[in-house]
Each structure stands twice: as structure tokens, then as C-alpha cells.
Amino acid sequence: MSETHEQWLARLAEQSKAKQERFMKDIAAKLRHPRMTEKPVQPYRGAPDFWQAFNWSQEEKEAQFIDNFQSVGGHTARLASMEEAKSFIVNKTVELGAKYIVRQNESELAALELEEELKQRLPEAELKAWNTDEEHAWMAEAAQADIGIVMADHAVAYTGSITVLSANNKGRSVSLLPTVMFFIIPVDRLHTRLGEVLGGFDQVGREKLPAGIHFISGPSRSSDIENDLTIGVHGPGVVYALLVG
To answer: Where are the extended beta strands (E) located within 80-204?
Structure first.
């Protein structure tokens, strides 16, 4: 008597479970420990107390951030003031012969008066502030930009990461699409651990979170299955982190 459809499904299920069990036992044998059937007991949730208390001095944070950011192909500069940051950006823009620059529409960047300086040093260059004209195709403009300029909201020394939040005046395209990026990081926004930044988002609550929270660690890096690494395919290929203050 042939088996019913339900019996056939049950037999396939048993075969599948047996195959899974053989697979898991094989992994356990290669790891040289018994086959585990119960989930492990977690002694605590979240970061342990010793990690919550871990903190570097200001000098250590700056040194560690610079080392970590450079280790993945980023460029850094330690500058004393926003005026020095302005000079650094303008000099690099002239050196690169950039034709089109886009920046966030933030008061700190507006105060630098980069537009006026560039008119004198590089008259053919055009600098625009993000989303100042709602009818403008800003994403397309950012994709064509030679240089993007962004004020970092946070930075993390331990991971060498920059945190950028999205807002109406701070479109994510400014940090994701231009060929060369300049991130200005006031040193009082530099933290030791990533948890210091993430904890702040937990405190404000879901309703007050920004549209996007982006963690950027150096230039865009893409690798295929053969481990061929390519820089700048899905984002800026040259990234400067300017520590200011």
C-alpha cells in the first residue's frame, strides 16, 4: 500500500531532521566539544561594567582615532581651529582642481564662508549648500560633486568611526556620493566607545530618532568573493577626518 501525502511529508521531515543532526554533530566534533542542545546561559545583557567604565584621555582618544581611521585608508589632520579647517579644505580643493562642491546646510559650515574664499582662489569652482532650494535635484548634484563637506555629529576613537545623522539640512547624500569627503570633527564630539554614542540614541526614544544614523569608517571599500578590494565604488574613495579644537 502506497503512503499518503501526509506520510510522505512526515518522512521527508524526519530525513531532514536527521541530516541536520549529522551536520551539527560534525561541527561539534570539529570544534572538539559535545553537541549542544540547550542555549547557553548569558551571565549579563549588554556591555559588562568594566567596558562601560572604559575611557581614554582626550590625547589617547585623538591618537587612537587617528591610528584606526588611517589603518583603513582614511586621511586625518589635527587642526587647532575652524579657521585652520577652512584653510585646509580650501587648499585641498585648489590642489584637486575641484569644479563642484556640496556641503551640509549647517551654521558652523556657513560661518566658514567657504564660498567667498573659493571665489578668490578657484573662480571656476561652484559650492552649494544642501537643500537650500527644495525644487533642486540635490541627490543628482551630490552624485556629480567632486567634494562633499560635512560636520560630524559624533566620532568614536576605538573603532575609528564617524557618526553622521540625517536631517532636512543634512542629507545623507552629501556624505555618501561625492568623490572626496571632508568630515569636520570638533574634538568635544570624540568619544572612546561606540556605546557612548548609541546610548544617547536610546535615551531620546524612538520618536525623536533621526531619519538615518550613519557610521563611516574611512573610504568606501568593496570586495568580491575572490577578495579583490576596490576603493570608492559605492561611496567616496578619498576621505579626510579633520579633528578640530
So the answer is: 100-103, 126-129, 147-151, 154-156, 161-165, 180-186, 190-191
**Helical pair 82-96 and 114-121, crossing angle rounded to 10 deg:** 40
Q: Would you state the cell numbers that stand for residue 105, as one nine-digit string?
A: 546646510
pLDDT-based confidence at 112, cuts 50/70/90? very high
Give the separation between CA 184 and CA 207, rounded to whole angstroms: 28
Chain segment 18-65, per-residue pLDDT in tens? 999 999 999 999 989 888 888 888 877 778 888 888 999 999 999 999
Is the entire prediction scored with pTM above 0.90? no
pLDDT computed for residue 44 by the predictor: 75
- The answer to whether 67 and 232 have CB atoms below 8 angstroms apart is no
As a whole number of angstroms, the distance between CA 65 and CA 185 comes to: 11
Q: How far apart are CA 236 and CA 110, in angstroms?
A: 23
CA angle 23, 29, 30 (to 5 degrees): 95
Nearest CA-CA partner of 185 in 107, 98, 102, 108:
108
